[in-house]
Structures
1.
Amino acid sequence: MKVLVIGSGGREHALVWKIAQSSLVTRLFAAPGNPGTAELAENVPLAVDDLQGLLEFAVTQGIDLTVVGPELPLSLGLTDLFEEQGLKVFGARKNAAIIEGSKAFSKDHMKKYQVPTAAYEVFTEVASAVEFIERLGAPIVIKADGLAAGKGVIIAQSRDEAVAAVTDMLSGNAFGAAGSRVVIEEFLKGEEASFLAFTDGRNIIPLATAQDHKTIFDGDLGPNTGGMGAYSPAPVVTPAIHEKAMTEVMQRTIDGMAAEGRTYRGVLYAGLMIDGDSVKTLEFNARFGDPECQPLLMRLKSDIVPLLMAVALGDISGIQLQWHDEATVCVVMAAAGYPGDVIKGDVITGLDQAAKIPNLVVFHAGTAIKEGACVTNGGRVLGVTARGATVKDAIDRAYQGVNQITWPGVQFRKDIGHKALNR
Ligand code: AMP
Ligand code: GLY
């Protein structure tokens, strides 16, 4: 079987790493991939939004299965385009990916199908938005409607900060068209978890539990990022919470999408806020989380290819997934300046030493090869991911790897997984 993975982040390196282990795969491509995927697959220099180029490549090569990593090609309709040509794709269709592409759609869908979420309203005018802000009071959460690379959410601590954020978004200054509609919602407290499930539109197979670390600094301080580290399992997702997440969040959402004529096939990611026995949905993503994908795939014991193909064919009823009992932890190493403008081109040292540590994989994200050396080439550069008997063991092993690797201005959190230890 010939498989094509689309994307170039740590998530896609993890997908390539896992797919490459399948005996069903004869040839594996990554578009555009990164220096990490290049060691396991053939990189193809096509951008994730070059739908025509990707289609031509898939048709010419006779690709049997295309696996889409990031949200952008899903929102642009890659799955629909490929399926029209008879190609098999793992990834939500355009009319389903809207669950991530529009926060207004996603919130309205949750309301309609009784999926627990924060109270909210959608606005296109500043005056009515300000009225709502004054009624709800701070802290309050302002979200750009469209895709904003994880940066379109402002937690405003005061009325004035909220009004400034709304004005900025609605005027088109911040996030362009993505901010021409805003969702304003109630601030929720609690502990977050990432709940992911595979679905064919009817049947749902949950992945193992996971938790991300959104902010740049230890102790959940500083601005939000795409994610600075993740681990699995996440003890905050108790069996009772798991049951609620499956019935009240996943089942209702996926049934609702089917009822709307937007059958959801792929992986659905719910960002949950857990407070005692209450579970509320912060957002949906139409893809694997990054970095959650890295520790999750390292814990997955089963061959992933039959599952990905079953989702693409629209029937996962015959699939069962086995998971390692051990825990996994991924620590993200980011470039200086992240999550703002970053410095690129710094030489990364210590990759060979880290690679010698057993049960540890260094997933590449923003890296490049320059004059034979591996250099930084993006915000999140590496995801050092390790398995251990317990979360504590996996943390220790991951940081053993992190401590081998460095470059000027490297940033990483030192407290990845600590919430699990505190429970
Ligand atoms: P989102 O992209 O909607 O998940 O928002 C990004 C991050 O903002 C989330 O992971 C939370 O940390 C935070 N956030 C979003 N919505 C809320 C809310 N209603 N209350 C508290 N924090 C939130
Ligand atoms: N790690 C959060 C996300 O992938 O959206």
Note: The domain at 192-226+234-313 is CATH 3.30.470.20 (D-amino Acid Aminotransferase; Chain A, domain 1).
2.
Amino acid sequence: MTKRARIVAGNWKMNMTYPQGRDLTLQIVNSLQPSETVVVLCPPFIHLQNTYTAITGISNLHLGGQNCHEAEKGAFTGEVSVDMLASCGCKFVILGHSERREYFGESDTLLAQKIDRVLEANLTPIFCCGEPLAIREENTQDAYVAEQIKNSLFHLSADQLKKIVIAYEPIWAIGTGKTASPEQAQEMHHYLRSLIAKQYSDELAQSIPILYGGSVKPANALELFSQPDVDGGLVGGASLKAEDFMSIINSSNKALDA
Ligand code: 13P
């Protein structure tokens, strides 16, 4: 069976002033040990340059953007292009986060364009999907998430799709302290893999890292990451405290060793 990458990514969202971000990065750099877990820091854009300088030379620590525009460049005031991210050392870009979908009106179609742009620039999209609470309560989450995946990813060739990381983030679990149970996460991750297997191949489905996001914290990370189809986490609030984030990375390493 293909060995999938293990990834723990910290999505700082719109948090951390410049000095706070610099301190957090230094704390992580100073405590991170070499391991097979790929760690990705996704700070706000103003931190990219400094964070990149701080993490350069650490082989398992990478930088990611939280979003980018779908155009190559141009008159789009306030936006950031993927080439700009790449030039600051980013290897990853989060796309389709539920906060971007909800507060900035990002549609599946727009996200398909962003995915294309990011792949063209040879960066790795971390594509987020996940259902709101009402959908979970009526137990139609599989169909809901399948639409997001089909509409934004299934135009890709197999060679393109294999460069993607997926993050399943149920909206009802984001920032609420309410985590999906390990069983719920595993069930959805397994379902996502089965969709990819049906459309492409089982080999491809088995090779794509699928991260879980939504109130991942030191107390629940190991159990979540120990599920067979959960390949790590996309962490919000707990990535803002070096101690918590390091503990989550250690849980990923433990799940790998198990
Ligand atoms: P929390 O970990 O704060 O719930 O956020 C999850 C998330 O949205 C990561 O992208």
Note: The two ends are 17 Å apart (CA to CA).
3.
Amino acid sequence: MNLKEEILKLKEKLDVTIVAHFYQRDEVFELADITGDSLELAKKAMLSDSKNILFCGVGFMGESVKVLSPEKRVLMPKIACCAMAKMIDGDYYDDSIKTLNDAGIKSEDILPITYINSSASVKAKVGQMGGMVCTSSNAYKIIEKGLKSGKKILFVPDRCLGQNFAKKMNLTSAVLGDGTSLNDADIICYNGFCSVHQLFSVDDIEFYRNKYEDILIAVHPECDPAICDLADFVGSTSELIKYIKELPVEQKVAVGTEYNMVNRLRTKNTYILSSTKPECPTMNETTLQDVYDSLKLLETEQEEPYLNEILVDEDTAKWANIALNRMLEL
Ligand code: 13P
Ligand code: SF4
């Protein structure tokens, strides 16, 4: 029996649902029961009948599943950490609030919104302050709802996502620590970023436009505002997939997002918008062997917690759940 067959057999025996983000390696993505972007995965994993979820993605995604479905056992073959999510923790969050307070903005006048790419502890802090989570697919709606509170929005941790949506909604934005006036901004962005989505440059866009006159440029909103301003289409993972699949086959498109996903989208006329391969290093950590090893451990190991089981303490889970549910209710 080959590794893939062994995995399928163990999965059935142990009542495991395998969940994989679009950025996973092909070998892992192909055998998953549930695939999707971060929002779809959180929702679909909640609805799964299995007791055990084997989550192939990055740590904050596994944590979100555990927070939304505490009765499930969530295991990750690798607890790979999203580099952007790592840029903020509870202490950095508190420091950011203090910076706003020092600028004369009171805590009760701040409505925090955290991108789903953040730890459960940051989501919990946001939940405690009345705030909510967003993803790249629903950021517009969530910010719109946040603005209705009449408060100033603190957007963490992705500077680019915050700035791109502020522009799209004709709002003013400032970045913490870059010297811009915080008091004049509708949205104050934390200065985090995704190193993978920072790889796409204005030169890359110019290169493709010079080479192919009619090429379209499609990018993820985690790219720098200078890139999003020049693109023909800016969309979340799922929006990019839909946009590209609906293009006529002869239409060339250069895409600015993670390599694995772009590579399996369309066989012809699709280009990676970079001379460097934009692979997310942590999303790529999980291999088929890791999936097999995790299942084998679940089969043989009696003592809990299991290696790489996702656990979130009760208080953090309670508040993170509130912040996530404020998003899901929309
Ligand atoms: P999505 O919310 O589009 O799945 O994005 C997650 C992510 O990590 C993008 O880099
Ligand atoms: Fe995090 Fe960027 Fe990887 Fe997405 S692509 S998981 S934002 S490091």
Note: The domain at 197-272 is CATH 3.40.50.10800 (Rossmann fold).
